[in-house]
Specification:
heterodimer, A: alpha+beta, Butyryl-CoA Dehydrogenase, subunit A, domain 2, Butyryl-CoA Dehydrogenase, subunit A, domain 3, four-stranded antiparallel beta sheet, 11 helices, 52% helix, globular, B: Butyryl-CoA Dehydrogenase, subunit A, domain 2, oxidoreductase (chain A), AcylCo_DH-like_C (chain A)
Chain lengths: 364, 393
C-alpha cells in the first residue's frame, strides 16, 4: 500500500466536535439520560431535532445537490464519537448514517431521492428495517411483497420507534419505503436502554419500491459498522476518563486507589486499547470517505472496536467497585451500549470471518 | 526555511554531483552528511538543514530511487536513535562536531552503558563510580545488557559522581572511549544461543572531562532524553500491512494449508487484527509528529509491540507443529545487528521474549503511562530523600 489513510482530525473536525460536545454537555447529562430510559419515550427527540436540524448534522453524508451538507464519513465519525461519549439516545447512526446510506444507494428513484432530502434536512427520520445484529453481507429478513403491499415482521430494528419512514427489504429483491404510520411498531425490552429496538409488523402495508435491497442494505450496514467504531471509541474514551478521574479521587488505605499498581496497570492497558481503537476508527472513517481499502478497514475496525469498548466498560464497572453496580451510576448505560454495539452490524467474530476472505487467511 | 520541493532539488543536485554508482560508499555518506541531507532536522553543519523532521522522507525517497547506499541504520541504531539526539541537545559545539558525523556514517558504532546488575528498572540506583582526578574522571563498575559493545567505538555512559545525595541527583553523563584499556567486554549469551549483548567491566577507565555531557550531577535529566528517544525509536517505525512479525506466520498459513486448524485460525485472525491496528496506531503517531502535534501515544507503542511479537511468534511455533519442535541453530554467535524477524520461528519466539524487558520493562512502561499520561499518583516512595549510599541493596 503506497498511500496511508489520514488518521488525524482536521481543525474543522475538531471545531465540529467542540460544537457537538457543547450541545451535549448542556442537553444530555447522564442523569437525564438515565431518567428518560425508563419512560415511554426513551429517545430524546428535542436533542435529536437540535442536532439534526439546528446543527444540520443529519445531512453530513448527503451531497449538497441532493439536499445535504456534502461532508464525509470523517465528520460523521466525529459526531458519533461525541454521541457515544454521552450515550445520547438519538437516532443519528440509524437514520443519518444507515438509512441515509441505503437511500444513497437508490439514486435512480425520485421518491427515494426525495426521502433522502427529507432525512438530510431532518424533516423526517428513517430506519432500515433490518435487525441490528445483521452484518454487511449477512442474511436478513425480507417481508412478503404482494400486489404492491408488504406483509411480514422484522424484529430487532433499532430506533424504529421514532422513525417516520421505514426502508424495508422485500422478498422480490426490492427495497421499499413504508410510512411508519402504516406499520405496527412495538418496542422490545432491550439490553441497551439508550438505543432501543422495536418489532416492525406490516400487514398489507402500502410501500414504494425505491431500489434493489441487496446492494443498498450491504452499503448501509458496511457504513454502519465502520462508523459504529467511532461511537465505540467515544464510549471507551468516556469510561476510561471517568474511571481515571474516580480513582484519583477515591481513597482507601489512606491513599488514592489510583496509586496502586494493580489498578494503574489495568488503566494503562486500557488507555493503550483506546489509543489503538482511535487509529482503527479513524482508518475506517477515512476509508469510507475515500472508498480506498474500505472492506478491510471496516472489518478491522469492528473486529477491534467491539471487544475494546466492552472491555473498557467492564473495567470501568469493576474499578468503580460497589457504586459501579448501582442503577444510579451511569456506567451501566455504557456497558449496555458497548455490549449491544458488540453485536450490532456483526460481531467481532463475523468481521474476522470476513477478513479471512478479504486478506486470504482462509479457514482450514 | 526548506520545503519539500527545495529539498528534492537539493537532493537531486547532490546525486548529480555524487553519482552513487561512481562514488565509494563511505565517501558518499560523508558527502551526504556535509550536504545536510543526513538528518534534515539537525542544524546546518551537523548533517542537517534545520528543516522539519518529516521532510527526511522526501530525501530518502530520492536517494532510494537513485540506488544510493544507506548508513545501515540497524547496525548503528543506538548511535542514531539514542546517542545522537542526546549529544545534539546537551553536547558542546566541539562534541557535536567531533562525534555526530562518524556516528551517522557508521564509521563509529555506539553502545549504551546504562543498566547494571543492581540497577535495572531502578536505573537511578546505579553504582558505577566516576571520581574526578585532575582533568579526568576515573570510572569503576559493571554494566550489563549492552548490545553492540563488542563492535562499539564509543559508549554513552551514566555513572555516580556523588554518593552522598539522593540517587537521581548524583549521576553524571559521559561519552566513554570503548578502546580504553580499562574497558573489558564479555559476551552475555542469550536464550536464543547467540550473544547479542554483553557485560562490560570498567576498571580505572579514564574519561577526560571534555567528554562529559551536561553538567556534573545532571546526568539523570540528560539520560531522559536518551531513554525517551529509545522508546520513540522502538515504536515509531513505519510499516506496510503485514510488515512486522505477523508477516511470516501469515505467509506460512497461506502456503501450508495442511497445518491449519480452526483453533489456530481464530487466534491468527485476532492477532492479525491486533497487528494491523497497532500498525495504524504507529502510522497515526507518525502523522501526528509530521503535523507537529506529538501526542503521548508513543509511550504505549512498545508495550503493544512487545505483547504482539510474543503472541504471534508463539502462535507460529504451534502452527508449525512437528517442525516447531526443532530449532535452527544453537551455535553461540555474536551478531552485529538486532534482527527480531530474521531466522526461523523458534528464534523469533525466543528473541521476542526480550521485547518486554529491553528498553524498559512492560511493567515500568505501564507505570510511566499511568503516571505521566493518565496522571495517576505514584506509589509511595522510600528512596527519594535518602542519600544513595544509604539505600538498601
Amino acid at each position: 500500500m503506497s498511500t496511508q489513510p489520514d488518521l488525524l482530525y482536521s481543525e474543522e473536525e475538531e471545531a465540529l466536535r467542540g460544537a457537538v460536545r457543547d450541545l451535549l454537555t448542556d442537553h444530555c447529562d447522564a442523569a437525564g439520560v438515565l431518567a428518560r430510559a425508563e419512560t415511554d419515550t426513551p429517545h430524546d427527540l428535542s436533542l435529536w431535532k437540535e442536532l439534526a436540524d439546528g446543527m444540520g448534522l443529519a445531512g453530513l453524508l448527503v451531497p449538497e445537490d441532493r439536499g445535504g451538507q456534502g461532508a464525509t464519513h470523517r465528520e460523521a465519525a466525529v459526531v458519533l464519537e461525541e454521541l457515544g461519549r454521552a450515550v445520547a439516545p438519538v437516532p443519528y447512526l440509524t437514520s443519518a448514517v444507515v438509512a441515509t446510506e441505503a437511500l444513497l444507494a437508490c439514486d435512480g428513484d425520485t421518491v427515494g431521492q426525495e426521502l433522502l432530502g427529507d432525512l438530510a434536512s431532518a424533516r423526517k427520520t428513517g430506519a432500515l428495517a433490518v435487525g441490528l445484529h445483521t452484518a454487511a453481507g449477512g442474511a436478513f429478513t425480507s417481508v412478503r411483497a404482494e400486489n404492491g403491499t408488504l406483509s411480514g415482521t422484522v424484529t430487532g430494528v433499532a430506533d424504529a420507534a421514532v422513525a417516520d419512514v421505514l426502508l424495508v427489504p422485500a422478498d422480490d429483491g426490492g427495497l421499499y419505503a413504508v410510512d411508519a404510520d402504516a406499520a405496527a411498531i412495538t418496542p422490545q425490552t432491550s439490553l441497551d436502554l439508550t438505543r432501543p429496538l422495536a418489532e416492525v409488523r406490516l400487514d398489507a402495508a402500502p410501500g414504494r419500491r425505491i431500489g434493489d435491497a441487496g446492494p443498498a442494505v450491504r452499503r448501509a450496514l458496511r457504513a454502519g459498522a465502520g462508523l459504529l467504531a467511532s461511537e465505540q471509541l467515544g464510549l471507551a474514551d468516556w469510561t476510561l476518563t471517568e474511571t481515571v478521574r474516580y480513582l484519583k479521587d477515591r481513597k482507601q488505605f489512606n491513599r488514592p486507589v489510583g496509586g496502586f499498581q494493580a489498578l494503574k496497570h489495568r488503566l494503562a492497558r486500557l488507555w493503550l486499547e483506546v489509543v489503538n481503537l482511535r487509529a482503527a476508527a479513524r482508518a475506517a472513517a477515512d476509508a469510507l470517505a475515500t472508498g480506498a481499502d474500505t472492506d478491510v478497514s471496516v472489518a478491522v475496525a469492528q473486529a477491534y472496536a467491539a471487544p475494546a469498548a466492552v472491555h473498557a466498560a467492564e473495567e470501568a464497572l469493576q474499578l468503580h467497585g460497589g457504586i459501579g453496580m448501582t442503577w444510579e451510576h451511569p456506567v451501566h448505560l455504557y456497558l449496555k451500549r458497548a455490549k449491544a454495539d458488540s453485536i450490532a452490524y456483526g460481531t467481532a467474530g463475523a468481521h474476522r470471518a470476513a477478513l479471512a476472505e478479504l486478506v486470504d487467511l482462509r479457514a482450514p | 526555511m526548506t520545503d519539500a520541493s527545495e529539498l528534492r532539488r537539493r537532493t537531486r543536485e547532490f546525486l548529480a554531483a555524487h553519482p552513487p554508482a561512481a562514488t565509494g560508499r563511505l565517501d558518499f555518506l560523508r558527502a551526504r552528511f556535509d550536504a545536510g541531507l543526513a538528518w534534515v532536522h539537525f542544524p546546518e553543519g551537523l548533517g542537517g538543514l534545520g528543516a522539519p523532521r518529516a521532510l527526511q522522507a522526501v530525501v530518502d525517497a530520492e536517494l532510494e530511487a537513485a540506488g544510493a547506499p544507506d548508513n545501515d541504520p540497524r547496525r548503528i541504531g543506538i548511535g542514531l536513535g539514542m546517542a545522537a539526539p542526546t549529544i545534539l541537545q546537551y553536547g558542546t559545539e566541539e562534541q557535536k562536531r567531533r562525534f555526530l558525523k562518524p556516528l551517522w556514517t557508521g564509521e563509529e558504532v555506539w553502545c549504551q552503558l546504562f543498566s547494571e546488575p543492581g540497577a535495572g528498572s531502578d536505573l537511578a540506583a546505579l553504582g558505577t563510580r566516576a571520581v574526578r582526578e585532575g582533568d579526568d574522571w576515573v570510572v569503576n563498575g559493571q554494566k550489563v545488557w549492552t548490545s553492540s559493545a563488542h563492535v562499539a567505538r564509543w559508549a554513552i555512559l551514566i555513572a555516580r559522581t556523588d554518593p552522598d545525595v539522593p540517587k537521581h541527583k548524583g549521576i553524571t553523563y559521559f561519552l566513554c572511549d570503548m578502546t580504553d584499556p580499562g574497558v573489558e567486554v564479555r559476551p552475555l549469551r542469550q536464550i536464543t544461543g547467540e550473544a547479542e549483548f554483553n557485560e562490560v567491566f570498567l576498571t580505572d577507565v579514564r574519561i577526560p572531562d571534555s567528554h562529559r555531557l551536561g553538567e556534573v550531577g545532571d546526568g539523570w535529566r540528560v539520560a531522559q532524553t536518551t531513554l525517551n528517544n529509545e522508546r520513540v525509536a522502538i515504536g515509531g517505525m513505519r510499516l506496510p500491512r503485514e510488515g512486522g512479525m505477523i508477516g511470516p506466520v501469515s505467509r506460512t498459513w497461506r502456503e501450508r494449508p495442511e497445518l491449519r486448524t480452526h483453533e489456530l485460525h481464530q487466534r491468527l485472525l485476532k492477532l492479525w487484527v491486533d497487528a494491523e491496528v497497532a500498525r495504524l496506531t504507529g502510522e497515526r503517531l507518525r502523522q501526528q509528529l509530521v503535523a507537529g502535534q506529538p501526542g503521548p501515544e508513543g509511550a504505549g507503542m512498545k508495550l503493544g509491540f512487545a505483547r504482539l511479537n510474543q503472541e504471534i511468534s508463539g502462535l507460529e511455533v504451534e502452527l508449525l507443529g512437528a517442525e516447531g519442535l526443532l530449532y535452527d541453530d544453537w551455535t553461540m554467535r555474536r551478531p552485529e545487528k538486532v534482527d527480531f524477524t530474521g531466522r526461523e520461528a523458534g528464534y523469533r519466539y525466543l528473541r521476542a521474549k526480550g521485547n518486554s524487558i529491553e528498553g524498559g520493562t512492560s511493567e515500568v512502561l505501564l507505570n510511566i503511562v499511568a503516571e505521566r499520561v493518565l496522571g495517576l499518583p505514584a506509589e509511595p516512595r522510600t528512596d527519594k530523600d535518602v542519600a544513595w549510599k544509604d539505600l538498601a541493596r
